[in-house]
Design goal:
heterodimer, A: Rossmann fold, globular, B: alpha/beta, Rossmann fold, 2 domains, 19% strand
């Protein structure tokens, strides 16, 4: 018997596409936005917000909620899309992202409903998540903490400070998800500052490591459930993904790390993601 | 007899606060024996987190703890607690106004033996420039007790700058902490605004000049937010202003006072570190002398404004 129903898988795959479409609308035409890294992580984020995490969009500070931290803060539009689709704020607000003084900034800002911490200076989100996880454990609370980390972000030394500290303190309510899309801003990670072998590094730091295809919804759900079932150590899900996934002209193309879309590209992206 | 060492006063007070308030958590970066975080570690190990030699991670972890209602105090030498973790304090903590308390221990040149790498002559400047940040430099151990209690009782990101060494108290024991500049000695010719160990030295300078120059001495232990009205009021009726701090003359107390007095047309002279790094010394007095941070330097600055 399948662990997850076909309906569930289908609906979550559709959510992944919906989030990508929202991201494209959020960026619009002619203004730079982080298309590539949003699309690589969209299925992971869809699974978290529409399958795994507990939250109350009408009460973002609800004590029983699980925590999501976007350590790779440059794909703020992806989290905003998930929060809007989950009901934290109107989806129309996505169209006003980055307008002067508006609450949806280029990077997540504490104060936006559903955003737990501000991120954007790479390498810090995992440490913040570790602090939340340790604080919850001190109070014997069951809430879980999910941190989405970029593979390029692993160039930052603080990621490994946090990995070492979590390996030592063993908060099993903490789950890092590494969006391993293989591209950083200036090109392929293996050619710039190679962070491989990723899984081996996390294992060496004392984490439970699960490697998956980050676009296979069933594998994503299995990994998230296995992480929750793992006791005595934190879990790192290394998700192999494709930067720009779902948009033919952006898939695996470094140039779409942070790029404006032409009118034609905008229309084509929305059409391919429909 | 009252405690004369700021680190000891901090550790004892923090331990008392931990006993009273279950939300307080203390973090150290392998220097708890010096910051006095070890006092909490020994009595309440469940409330102390050893973060290892990783100050950047410690600062962000503290941000996460604050996000779930804890009141984290992070401890290390000032050059590491504030300097090494500057970006984390800015990005992880201050933008989000998280309730984190950062204790910069062995600040200024008070770690005389370890030399320039361990002497924070710039921390007031780079902490003060961060929006949402409160910067407190207690004059002595007595005021450290009051400031530590104030930090635990009031929300917001705060930086506490502590001296490593023992010296005499100049403020009262068991006083309630005030964020306003406080007059410790009245005078009518020159106003000296001082912080930290330089408050006591300013009082000595004022005493030495008694009879020739009448000097008002003001303890400015809260450098940010600075009560601008009070600074102007205390400067207005004297001929000039001297600032005295164990910090660079750029961006610290002197800078803050000069900013406050920007419409007052009042001469201001700075006593502080003259845009240079410190060095090792065999004792505290030697390094203070080398860097121009003595009673005599304050007297000279006062006299220069009377000419």
């Amino acid at each position: 018997m399948e662990a997850y129903s076909r309906e569930l898988i289908n609906s979550l795959e559709e959510k992944g596409k919906l989030l990508r479409r929202d991201c494209i609308k959020c960026i619009g035409v002619g203004v730079a936005g982080h298309v590539g890294g949003s699309c690589s992580a969209a299925d992971l984020v869809a699974a978290l917000y529409f399958y795994k995490m507990k939250y109350d969009p009408k009460n973002p500070e609800w004590e029983g909620r699980d925590y999501f931290l976007l350590s790779k803060g440059h794909v703020g539009i992806l989290q905003y899309s998930a929060l809007a689709e989950a009901g934290f704020f109107p989806t129309e607000d996505l169209l006003h992202c980055k307008e002067p003084g508006f609450y949806l900034q280029g990077h997540p800002h504490l104060g936006t409903p559903g955003v737990e911490v501000g991120t954007g200076s790479l390498g810090q989100g995992l440490s913040l998540g570790l602090g939340i996880a340790l604080g919850l454990q001190m109070d014997h609370k069951p809430n879980r903490v999910y941190v989405l980390v970029g593979d390029g972000e692993q160039n930052e030394g603080q990621i490994w400070e946090a990995a070492m500290a979590a390996g030592a303190k063993k908060p099993d309510n903490l789950c890092a998800i590494i969006d391993n899309n293989g591209l950083q801003a200036q090109g392929p990670i293996r050619d710039r500052l190679d962070s491989a072998p990723i899984a081996d590094k996390w294992k060496a730091f004392g984490w439970n490591v699960i490697e998956i295809d980050g676009h296979n919804m069933e594998e994503i759900l299995k990994a998230l459930d296995a992480a929750e079932a793992t006791k005595g150590k934190p879990t790192a899900i290394v998700a192999h993904t494709i930067k720009g996934k779902g948009i033919s002209f952006a898939e695996g193309v470094t140039g779409f790390h942070n790029a404006p879309l032409s009118k034609e590209q905008y229309e084509q992206a929305l059409s391919e993601l429909s | 007899m009252a405690e004369r060492n700021q680190r000891m006063a901090y550790g004892q007070t923090l331990l008392e606060l931990c006993r009273e308030n279950p939300d307080i958590v203390v973090l150290d970066a392998d220097l708890g024996g010096s910051t006095m975080g070890k006092m909490i570690e020994l009595e309440m190990p469940e409330r102390h987190i050893e973060m290892g030699i990783a100050e950047a991670n410690m600062a962000s972890v503290a941000g996460g703890l604050a996000r779930v209602g804890k009141i984290p105090f992070t401890n290390s030498f000032a050059v590491f607690a504030a300097g090494r973790a500057y970006d984390q304090i800015r990005q992880s903590i201050s933008i989000g106004k998280l309730n984190v308390k950062i204790c910069g221990s062995s600040a200024g040149c008070s770690d005389f033996g370890d030399g320039a790498t361990h002497q924070s002559i710039d921390d007031i400047a780079y902490m003060r420039v961060i929006p949402n940040m409160t910067v407190i430099v207690p004059a002595d151990a007595n005021e450290t007790v009051a400031a530590t209690k104030y930090m635990a009782a009031n929300k917001g990101v705060m930086y506490l700058r502590l001296n490593r060494n023992e010296y005499d108290n100049v403020t009262l024991e068991n006083a309630v902490f005030s964020t306003d500049p406080t007059v410790l000695r009245e005078g009518s010719d020159i106003t000296v605004f001082a912080c930290g160990i330089m408050v006591g030295k300013a009082l000595k300078a004022a005493e030495n000049l008694k009879g020739s120059i009448s000097v008002r001495v003001v303890n400015v232990s809260t450098i940010k937010p600075l009560n601008r009205e009070k600074i102007c009021e205390l400067a207005r009726d004297t001929k000039g202003v001297v600032t005295a701090e164990e910090h660079s003359i750029i961006g610290g107390l002197g800078g803050a006072v000069a900013e406050a007095l920007r419409r007052e047309c009042k001469p201001v002279e700075f006593v502080g570190v003259n845009d240079e790094f410190g060095s090792s010394a065999h004792n505290y007095e030697d390094i203070l002398k080398l860097l121009g941070l003595t009673v005599e330097h304050i007297e000279e600055a006062i006299r220069s404004l009377m000419q």
